[in-house]
Amino acid sequence: MKPFWDEMLNQLKGEVDESEFNFWLEPLACLRSDQSRIVVEVPSKFFRDKLEPRYLKRFKELLADLTGRDITLEFEVRKREDTPTPRPRKQEVSEDEGTARRAEKPKAKKHTHNPGLRPEFSFDHFVIGENDFAYNAALGVAGDPGTRYNPFMIYGGVGLGKTHLMQAIGNHICQLHPDLTVLCVSANTFLTDYVNAMKSSHSQQFAQKYRNVDVLLLDDIHELQRGKETQEELFHTFKALHDKHKQMVFTCDRPPTELKDFNERLQTRFTAGLTVDLQIPSWETRLAILLKKMESKALKIDLEVLEMVARNVTTNVRDLEAALNQITAYAELTRKPITLEVAQENLKKIFAGIIAPNVTIETVQRVIADYYNLSTNDLKGKKRNQAIVFPRQVAMYLIRELTEYSTTEVGIEFGGRDHTTVMHACQKVEEKLRTDPGFDPVIQNLIRSIKDYGKRSL
Ligand code: ADP
Ligand code: MG
After folding, report:
1. Cβ(183) to ligand 1 under 6 A?
2. Which residue blocks in 296-438 are alpha helix, DSSP H?
C-alpha cells in the first residue's frame, strides 16, 4: 500500500498550493500498511486534529480510485523517543539515513530538477510594451547571473507580470546553464519552511535548501511583513548567497522602501542591486498581450473583439487574461463564433467581477470634478472655457468607456447636450491618448479612482 500512498500524495501536489502541500502533506510518511489499511505518521496530535477535517475525505477518495478498495486510514502521532530529530523534508533525506520509512521517499534534490518554474513564464511569452527597462534588465540578469544587478528586485501592482518576469529569468538560466541550481519559491513557502525547521529544530536542512543554490528566486516578499524572525533568517540567507556571488531575484508589490515592519538592514540590501518597477500596460500593449495569448490557443477570435476586451479591461494583465479565458470558454461551450455583437451582449457575463462594480454617470462626474478641481455643476453646465471643456470631454469619454450608456443618454446627463457633442468629446480624448504619451497614465489613474469609488458605494 505504500506506493499507493506516495502516488496519492503526488496527485495531491497538483491540487493544492505549494506552501499548503509543504505544510500539510509533505510531512506525512507511511509507517506501515497491509491490504486494507495504511498507518501514517503525523508530527503532533494538534496536526492530526487539523488534518483530518481538511483532507481525510479526499485521501479516501483518491486511495479508493487508485486501489479500487476502501482503505482504512490511521494517523499515528510521532513518539519523541522513536525519532529524536523529526523527519527531515523528503528531498533532503540521504540514502543511508535509516529506516524503511525514510528510504521509501526516494526523490533526492527535488529542486535541482524541478526548481518550481512554469515553462510558459518565459521571455518569449512576455510582451515588452512599456516595460522595456525591466525586461532588458531581467534579460541581463538571466544572461550573466550573480555578477551584475545582484539582487534584482522587481516590484509592481498585482497581476502586472512580476512572477512571470522572475520565472523567465529562472527558465532562461536553466536553459543556458543546466549545471546551475535554481530555486524558485514564494516568500510564503520560505516562511513555512522556516517555521517548520524551527519547530523541528531542523535548521540545517533549511539552510541547505536555501543557501546551497546558485540562483534564488523569491516571490512576493511583502508577505514577510511582520514576520520578524523570518526576515532575520532571510537576511542571513541573503548574506550567505551574496558573499558567494549567487544571484537573487525578489518580487514585491510595492517599492521595498515602503515595506512595513521590515528589518531595515534587509530593506537596504534589497535595493543595493537593481530595482525595476512594472507599469500598467497601455491599451496597445494590452492588445498585444491578448494577441500573444491567442497564439497558444487553437481558437480564433476576431480582432475587434480583442480590441474591445483590451479597451474594457484596464486594471492589470491577470484580469485581461481572465476576460480572454471567459470569452474562449464561452466560445467553446456554446460552439458559436464570438462576434463583436455576441461579445457585447455577453459583456456582463464575460467581465463579471472584472469591470468596475457600480460605475454610474454621477460617480464619473464626481471623480473627474475632484481631479480637475471643479464642481459637478461646472461639468454639467454651459461654460465653455478650456479649463472646463476638456475635463467635461474626459468625463464623457470615461462614461462611454466604463458604462453602457448611449451617447444620447450621456448628453442628457451633461445639461441636455446633443449626442454628437458626446461623440466629438470621445474623439478628442482618443486623439489626445494617441498623441500624448503622458496622458494614458492620467486616464488609467482616473479609471482606478472611479472603480474604487464605485466599490465604496456598493
Ligand atoms: P504578478 O506576479 O505581478 O501578480 P503575474 O506574473 O502572475 O503577475 O502575471 C499575471 C498573468 O499575466 C500571468 O499569466 C502572466 O503570464 C500574464 N502577464 C503579465 N504581464 C505580461 C506581459 N507583459 N506579457 C504577457 N503576459 C503577461
Ligand atoms: Mg505574482
Report:
1. no
2. 303-312, 317-334, 340-345, 347-350, 361-371, 376-380, 386-402, 407-413, 419-435
